[in-house]
Amino acid sequence: MGPNRCAVHDGVSDAQEKFPFTITNDEIGAKLAAGEKLHILDVREPAEFASGHMPGAMSMPLGELEKRLSQLETDRTYYLICRTGSRSDRACHILAERGFPNIKNVTPGMLQWTFDIETKN
Predict the structure, then answer these.
(1) Lowest mean pLDDT across 3-7, 22-26, 63-67, 89-93
(2) Buried b (16+ CB within 10 A) or exposed e, 76-111
(3) Is residue 57 within 8 Å of 118, Cβ to Cβ?
(4) Tell me, what's the pLDDT at 121?
(5) In whole angstroms, how far apart are CA 30 and each of 25, 111, 116?
(6) End-to-end alpha-carbon separation of the chain, Å?
(7) Distance between CA atoms of 28 and 81, rounded to whole angstroms?
(8) Residue from 41, 60, 82, 92 carrying the catalytic annotation
């Protein structure tokens, strides 16, 4: 790679700073176990979502996020998740750039999610 190039992994470039506001799988799991109503956006592809997702999560693939912003309310807190935390990191950046002040990236993502899952859409 040349000096003006950067690697891209799962849609996020190495040059992009990580989104600073995160929450762990364990913290989200505890909130869900306590019965908290959370607004979870799963930015994985539909087939990934269908194979298992956090209870109550809404499927909003990263590639559709910008065209579906009208479905979201800027005053809500959104928790974004993907498989490993990379796509959700990028989605957090997109939402922050569009004026959403209360968003958190769920890390390390569904690959290491050990709590209940749903398989219905």
Answers:
(1) 3-7
(2) eebbbbbbbbbbbbbbbbbbeeeebeebbbbbbbbe
(3) yes
(4) 65
(5) 9, 18, 11
(6) 41
(7) 11
(8) 82
Tell me how far the alpha carbon of residue 4 is from its chain's centroid: 28
d(CA 92, CA 73): 14
Provide the residue type at 97 as one letter.
E
pTM of this prediction? 0.86
Active site residue 82: yes
Helix (H, G, I), strand (E, B) or coil at 88: helix
Give the strand order in the sheet containing 58-59.
22-24, 103-107, 78-81, 39-42, 58-59
